[in-house]
Amino acid sequence: MLDLGTTFLQSVERSPHALALVDSGVRLTYAQWHEQIGRTVAGLQRLGLGRGDRLLSVLQNRHQAATLHWACQFLGVVIVPLNWRAKADEIDYCLADAEAKAVFFDASSEEATRASGGARALPRIGVGTLEGSDATGDWETLLAGPASPLQTAADAEDLSLMLYTSGTTGKPKGVPRRHRQERAAALAHVAQNLYRRGERTLGVMPLYHTMGVRSLLAMALVDGVFVCMPRFDTQEALALIEAECLTCLYLVPTLYHDLLTQRERAGHGSGPGPDIASVKKLGFAGAPMHDALLKRLQAAFEPELFVNHYGSSEVYTFSIDQQALDKPGSAGRAGINTRLRVVRLDASGVDDRVAPGVEGQIIADLRGDEAFEGYWKREDANTKSLRSGWYFTGDTGYLDEDGDLFVTGRVDDMIISGGENISPVDIESVISLCPGVGEVAVAGLSDERWGQRVVAFVTTRDGGAPLDAHALDAHCRSSDLPNFKRPREYVFVAEIPKSPVGKVLRRKLVAGEYTPLPAGEDRSA
């Protein structure tokens, strides 16, 4: 298989004058981007970086971050992208764990980088406008020298990047991925989303997240356009969709929710309009999408393709459903590089499968072309998650009679009430269909009698129907939700706590880390 540097050269050779990268006033063709990547490679070499070294990037989604990613692929340097919101101690931990030899940062991460003791011992390259920075160099100086001839120093077996998991419990885990695994995942992304040559996408999913990396690589594979968006803003996103005639979106459900809410507030209504007419393909991942949001998106975009993608940093694609609206909640079937099973929650082995309709833990075959081989220096995590050549995802779900997968949550999110195992996702889908509901998250709170009681945390939509606990309970009672799953309490909140990439943080709800609101107060999502 080709390495990623050679993969980029393919696009340069096929379409040198095609637009490749957009970021505010920066517009680069593939030939121009190729030249800038060459200058970046030369600058990295002057820093003493070479094949197999690790480089920590704490950058927002700007053109320099995309260029740095590709430069590392040519040079054989392993890029280690980190959340630009990371604190100094997180930077210290990842620098030491990855054994990184340089740090790139911008204004968003400048304060944390300055406070990082580990960063002070390394070359620190500042990107963009910085005030009072203690950087040892800057992006402009890095690119000031002559470009290196772009002949890739890596091969398909070399490491391409190392992503760090979110670390919601314990220290984050490094997920090293090879060029061949990254290329296979990008090819699968192109195939599963039916991308054509010249697609144009919004590059807003962060490049420290597998969804952002996949968008970046996939656009190069189809000679497409990656439109950078350093930080998500609903108005700006809608403006970019219209101005750049974007053809495909790949976002987490939260960002879709926010886009639709912004359009409605701006008076576009809930239907299609010229501002989003160019978008023909929608894809989502990172979290389940509730039924109500699926229907709103279908009405607004009228997409040719609506893809539900279920995966992880470790194994990019678990399953795919290219007709997300046909069977709401379904994550479809195994992707083109994957095999899946659902085994008992307390499975003793990978063959301990459950029958259709029975909830269990989802596992994936590690022989798939997209699958990683193990965590970085974490044998404890490998022992827990890698068994007999399969990856135990920690996600719960079931296969229906048709063989379609339904993801119901995390093993750790399972609510055990009165001896019954209850997953939050199907409850959330029912509540999301209640008129006036904006967002909903369900969690299990401690209960002396039941062990845990089911509690729904709810925000409302602008202009939605008045809501109170009685209306929500009546809605649940009139649905097909079994009585034992019905929430025993409804809490109206200002917002649902989420991670930087839009995943609901149920642990914060359980811990009481939210702003409660009385029923009837303005709490628009």
TrEMBL record:
Q: What class of enzyme is it?
A: ligase
Q: Ranges for the AMP-binding enzyme C-terminal domain?
A: 427-503
Q: Which GO terms describe its molecular function?
A: 4-chlorobenzoate-CoA ligase activity; medium-chain fatty acid-CoA ligase activity
Question: What Enzyme Commission number does this protein have?
Answer: 6.2.1.33
Name a single GO biological process: fatty acid metabolic process
Which controlled-vocabulary keywords does the entry list?
Answer: Ligase
Q: Which residues form the AMP-dependent synthetase/ligase domain?
A: 10-376
Asked if the keyword Ligase belongs to this entry, the reply reads: yes
**Keyword presence, Magnesium:** no
Q: Which family does it belong to?
A: Belongs to the ATP-dependent AMP-binding enzyme family.
Q: What protein name is recorded for this chain?
A: 4-chlorobenzoate--CoA ligase
Q: Gene name? A: fcbA2
